Amino acid sequence: MKIAYFINQYPKVSHSFIRREILALERQGFEVLRIALRGWDGPLPDPADVREREVTRYVLRRGIPGLLLPLLKAAIGSPLRLLTALRVAVGMSRKSPRPVLYHLVYVAEACRIVQWTVEFGARRIHAHFGTNSAEIAMLAHLVGGLPYSFTAHGTDEFLRPMGLAEKIERSSFVVAVSSFVRSQLYMRSHRTDWHKVKIIHCGLERTFYTGQFAPITASHNLVCVGRLSEVKGQLLLIEAAARLAADEVPFQLTLAGDGPLRPQVEGLIRKYRLEDRVRVTGWISGAQVREEILAARALVLPSFSEGLPVVAMEAMALRRPVLATYVAGVPELVRHGENGWLFPAGSVTALADAMKDCLARPVAEIQALGEAGYERVIERHSIDSQVTKLAALFRLPASAADQTAYTPVQRAGQSS
To answer: Which of 74, 108, 125, 336 is deepest in the core (most CB within 10 A)?
Structure first.
């Protein structure tokens, strides 16, 4: 079965879970066309992402002028469908902070996607994230007739909902990565569409957590992995680290990642004179992230908002406990006292106390927490078992309503 995946930016350091999903689908016999708006330039530390970039098509690579011909073809070949898409786009702009011009451009981008999916022979489109990716997939559905679905992760989708009810209503189904995300989709959609929302977790490949076991050592290393941004709470983490230093608690902290907050993070490190205790790596490859986690006693995630962080799954799969905030879907994975620590978001005192407790525990206790996390994550987050559920949804025929209301755009040479 041929399907198309559409992502706003791909590949991306923080989107390794999408790559894993696509590769797992291909192992199950699917042919997947990768389409992204952007992502064809910039450094990629992971060789797997470099390979993905080579097989991804980019909608905006030729700029806005590159969208004009697909738009013209849609206007000639299926004018009524295009008018419907334009009308829906204008309506979506009223629910969005972005002006109407952006949404009209989304229609042109959708026309480009329709052209590629028809050439590829795709049977459906699946988007990741419920933001503009899902809207463009919906518009491509209106223009070209292919059924679409999308995965909601629970970050930007809920900070800026942008017409989620309509995106869900017109979709074949919607994937929620956690029970929390499902609840938020319920809250932003019609009761009659709740049956479309399916929970399918992000997953890890078996090769990530099998092989030689690296035991936790007596080191006092902690690691935080993620984009350096306000939502991830790294500034609060530096404040907590300063308290540990003031209390003469031995520790080393690694911030693995990069992002717009890096100057502020490094400035705060200098302010508290933590240069010999806190290290910022910048973007590193997936293999390097693995090594940083294995070198640590535990992973720390002081986030203010999350969906269900994949890096927490990775740490638990490597038998490392997790210190995380009690937000969104995190408590579905991290259990306080069982495989890690949970503490209130925004509390530097609670964060510092959790770090002190983790650093003071005997290695045997930390190892037991790590083992419990390992058991939980391999039970819930094997990529192949989760993708089996997704593949079953992809193989379902389009609903009768989809087949009646929208017939696919014909290939060149066929009547429309």
So the answer is: 125
